[in-house]
Design brief:
heterodimer, A: 311 residues, alpha+beta, Porin, twelve-stranded antiparallel beta barrel, 3 helices, 14 strands, B: 176 residues, mainly alpha, Globin-like, 10 helices, 53% helix, elongated, Group 1 truncated hemoglobin (chain B), Globin/Proto (chain B), Hemoglobin_trunc (chain B), iron (chain B), metal-binding (chain B)
């Protein structure tokens, strides 16, 4: 009798165990629906939300870091907040009377705290190349690897008088060391150090950025670093002022001071920019940039265009 | 072998009777909503406009941008609806008394916008304590408020001016 019962019991138990998860699942579903009725929340599976506010990852500066077009900001790249890793990629072109500049790069923002960036700069000398004897359409190239850490503060939240503050370093390596040394540069590589403070003053819809940069770079490093005569670090200033017209549209102006180590009359940079985010992940920037004198060719003013994707 | 021996025991288990009052078994007390206000009563606290966490605007200009008291009420209502229906932050609002939230958030907005209200809710720290809010949750809430203000045609600069009163509260709201 016992032997007869056991197989039956076993099979029944297996059956009931087999059904149990189904039954539990059904029960869970029922309780979900009940709680939905109570709270009114739709039954979308909960995927932890971690996104930044629009445009607070900024655009990509020509050095590859999150910032304005020509200035480094304290912002961290990518659209992820404290519990994720964000990414932004950009392509930039600057159309100048005597040159064509192009760069592209990638920046990763970890937990809105640390940023790693890479940018490749390609600077086409066009006819100037022939005039300077380095060859028609000679391209100066540079790789930049950067790291930035947010120290304190938040660009939007917190005390209005406490900005987001970040420190950064950028290792720049010119791929045209021969040209750099021919114009008198001391090195074909160098490291820039930055300290930035950025805040969106909501009461006036105005964003302010200030950056102090220690650098030896000539024309951002495209003409090498330092000079035989002057090989010391110089403190330079970068500033940005922008007005927020909507969540998706910002207009502003930037300034970046530069040393003149080579004695070629290197000028400070200015721009007027408009940035627009047609979708949450896409930012288009157009600017009028005044880059002054580059390699003795003065009046280099033109259009700066950038497309950026960010996640 | 052990499993085989316990299988009959599993089978012999009886389902509990269906008429057990589990709330009583576990000592859960039923919360009665106030018959007049429809709100769930809260622990007593000192009521003060200082609990609003911000000083009101000085002039009437901001209230006018927000459509006066009626406009502010519509914005607070819409903001409440959006928050309670938002899957991004639904978990935070699920345990909340929607009736009380709707009233206190209107009072807070109305007080800060200088539209002639007093705020009777709790202060920002104790009203957000234990919610485990993160900055991303705050972002979602800001987006909901921006949507509610946009739908009432509040100019963007005025939206930001209002947010400038709320943004400094982040330290009391963000917990992790």
């Amino acid at each position: 009798m016992k032997t007869a019962l056991y197989p039956l019991a076993a099979s029944l138990t297996v059956c009931s165990l087999g059904f149990m998860p189904v039954a539990l699942a059904a029960k869970e579903k029922a309780s979900d629906q009940q709680s939905i009725e109570q709270t009114g929340a739709p039954s979308v599976p909960f995927d932890e939300y971690n996104a930044k506010l629009l445009l607070t990852n900024a655009i990509s500066a020509i050095d590859g870091a999150s910032g304005g077009g020509i200035s480094n900001w304290a912002t961290i790249a990518g659209r992820q907040e404290t519990r994720g890793i964000g990414v932004q990629a950009h392509v930039t072109a600057v159309l100048l009377p005597d040159y064509f500049y192009q760069s592209h790069g990638l920046a990763v923002g970890i937990a809105d705290r640390v940023e790693f960036s890479y940018a490749r700069q390609n600077f086409d000398t066009q006819d100037v190349g022939a005039a300077l004897g380095i060859g028609q359409g000679y391209k100066l190239n540079q790789d930049i690897v950067g790291a930035k850490v947010r120290l304190v503060g938040d660009v939007v939240y917190g005390d209005a008088l406490v900005p987001q503050v970040s420190v950064g370093a950028q290792y720049k390596r010119s791929l045209d060391g021969a040209v750099a040394s021919a114009v008198g540069a001391a090195h074909d590589q160098g490291v820039d150090f930055t300290l930035s403070a950025t805040k969106l003053f909501l009461s006036h819809s105005i964003l302010v950025n200030t950056t102090a940069r220690l650098t030896k770079a000539n024309q951002n490093g495209l003409l090498g670093f330092g000079s035989v005569a002057d090989d010391s670090y110089e403190l330079q200033f970068e500033g940005a002022l922008a007005y927020q017209f909507s969540r998706r549209f910002v207009v502003g102006s930037e300034f970046r001071s530069k040393p003149d180590n080579l004695g070629l009359g290197e000028d400070d940079w200015f721009d007027l920019f408009a940035a627009y985010a047609p979708t949450d992940n896409f930012t288009l920037t157009a600017a009028y940039a005044d880059l002054g004198s580059i390699a003795t060719f003065t009046g280099q003013r033109g259009a700066f265009l950038q497309a950026q994707v960010a996640f | 072998m052990f499993l085989t021996a316990t299988l009959p025991l599993l089978l012999m288990q009886q389902a509990p009777a269906g008429d057990i009052d589990w709330d009583k078994e576990f000592g859960v007390e039923e919360v009665e909503r106030d018959p007049v206000t429809g709100e769930i009563p809260v622990e007593p606290y000192t009521k003060s406009n200082a609990n609003a966490g911000a000083t009101p605007f000085n002039s009437d200009a901001m209230a006018a941008h927000f459509g006066g008291r009626d406009g502010i009420e519509r914005i607070a209502d819409r903001f409440t609806d959006l928050n309670f229906a938002d899957p991004r932050i639904g978990g935070i609002f699920a345990g909340h008394d929607e009736v009380r939230f709707r009233r206190t958030i209107f009072e807070q907005f109305c007080y800060i916008l200088n539209a002639g209200c007093d705020y009777t809710g709790r202060d920002m720290q104790s009203s957000h304590a234990g919610l485990g809010s993160r900055k991303a949750d705050l972002n979602a809430i800001v987006e909901n408020l921006q949507q509610a203000m946009r739908e009432e045609n509040v100019p963007f600069a005025a939206q930001n001016r209002f947010l400038s009163k709320l943004a400094p509260m982040s330290g009391d709201v963000i917990e992790r």
